[in-house]
Structure formats: structure tokens, C-alpha cells
Amino acid sequence: MSDSIIEVHDLHKTYREGLFVRKQVNALRGVTLEVPRGCIFGLLGPNGAGKTTLIKVLLGLVKRSSGGGSLLGRPLGDRVGRMKIGYLPEHHRFPRHLTGNAAMIYYGGLSGLSRREVLHKRPALLERVGLSKWGQTPVHKYSKGMQQRLGIAQALLHNPELLVLDEPTDGVDPVGRADVRRLLKELQQEGTTIFLNSHQLQEIELVCDQAAILAAGRVQKLGTIEEITKQPSARMEFVLQG
Ligand code: ATP
Predict the structure, then answer these.
(1) What's the pLDDT tens digit per position in 79-109?
(2) Which of 8, 166, 199, 211 is most buried by a 10 A CB count?
(3) With a 6 A CB cut-off, is 199 part of the ligand 1 pocket?
(4) By the 8 A CB rule, do 34 and 224 touch?
(5) Rounded to an integer, what distance in angstroms lies between the CA atom of residue 105 and that of residue 87?
(6) For residue 32, how far is its CA from the centre of ligand 1 (angstroms)?
(7) What is the pTM of this model?
(8) 53: Cβ below 6 Å to ligand 1?
């Protein structure tokens, strides 16, 4: 089996907008990267760099314009591969009226799990993310960090090999961010590979082993976190682009 959990080469995505005046947005312009199994991989870039588009193409949520690759050893877009991925989208919002317990059942159902399966897995997962005492509480009373941890718990319901998190600490306070980082490190130690999207350089530095810097749809830098962040030029370029 390959050591890479994600491999993409020369990936392009062009959005086309407008009925009368056709406008094109080249969101990905030839992205090539590899994510080793077992690592926490950071995708870093300023707003509009193409990070969310890359995640959506990987997950088959939007169609690529050209290029190819594989995910968990299967071709991009393959449904079986998708089943082994846990996903927390950007700006994820739980329905306000749901309690933490009910949210797990709701999202478990969306992932194809029976109520019985969710009930079996839920206590350990809520414990895992430090929310076991909060299951009966409506989600709108959770802090942003707690909501993100619940989001990670729901993404783990089907025991994914790969966890894809789109800006999981965006809008989360410093204590909540540290909690999320600690959780990601623990999940990695248990064998989960994590693909983490962020526009915060410090976040990536603190938690990732490897990273890519994306800007205007192209990979600008790719390597270990030391290679990426210890070069003053890389740091300066990112700050300027951000
Ligand atoms: P952010 O950090 O702000 O979420 P991002 O790096 O995730 O940014 P994308 O959301 O992938 O970037 O957007 C990349 C480019 O594609 C942007 O110019 C954006 O406006 C454009 N774009 C994204 N989604 C669509 C869409 N559905 N239709 C048209 N253009 C889009």
C-alpha cells in the first residue's frame, strides 16, 4: 500500500459564472501535492487562495476541470474512498435547537449510520472531545470551540482513516484553539491522518508535520513544517499575501 493518503497532480478548477456575461475564476491552477499517511498536513493560504476548493475537489463535492490523483489509494471521486473520510466543513453550524446528543444522531444519520450505531459510539466520542457532560445541552449554548469539537466528534462517527477539517479554529478563542490542537495530536497518535485547512500560520506551525502554502490557486511552498516556516522568506511571503 502507498504511504500517501492523498496524491494530486496538476489539478485545475475553473468556476464559470454568469448567464450572459461569462466570468471565469481559476480557483486551482495546477496543484500537485502528496500527503503521507499518519501525518497532520496543513494547507495554508490567504482568503481566496483555493483551499476550500481543493478540499471540495478531493471530496468530490465539486468537479475538477482537469488533473487527477488518488485518495486512500482510490481514484479521486470514488465513493468507497469517501466513506473513509470524516469532514468538518468551513463555517459549520449545527441546527440551534439540537442538543449535543441529538446532533450526533442527526449527523450520524447523514453519514448512513443507524440510531443504534450512533448510540453505541456516542458516549466514547463525546468523552474523547471533552463534552460528555454537555450532551443534554442545546448546541447554541456551546462556545465556538465546543461546537468545533462536537463537529470533530460527528466527523469521527464512522471511524474515518482521514479527517479533513476546513478552518476548524476560525473564530475560536485561544483556550478553545489549544483544546482543538490537543485533540488533533491525540487523534494522530491513534492513527488518524489529518488534513487541516487554515489561514493562520501559527496554527499550522503548532500542530502540523507537513504543509503546503497555496496562493492564487498554486502551491508556493511544500515540505516539512520546519522547511516551510523556518525560512524567513516563506514567512514574509505569506504575511504579504495574507
Ligand atoms: P477562504 O479562506 O476565504 O475560505 P479559500 O482559500 O478557501 O478562501 P476558495 O473558497 O477555494 O478559497 O476560493 C478560491 C476562489 O474561487 C475565490 O476567488 C472564490 O471567490 C472562488 N470561488 C469559490 N467558490 C466559488 C463558486 N462556487 N463559484 C464561483 N467562484 C467561486
Answers:
(1) 766 678 999 888 778 887 899 999 999 988 8
(2) 211
(3) yes
(4) no
(5) 16
(6) 18
(7) 0.89
(8) yes
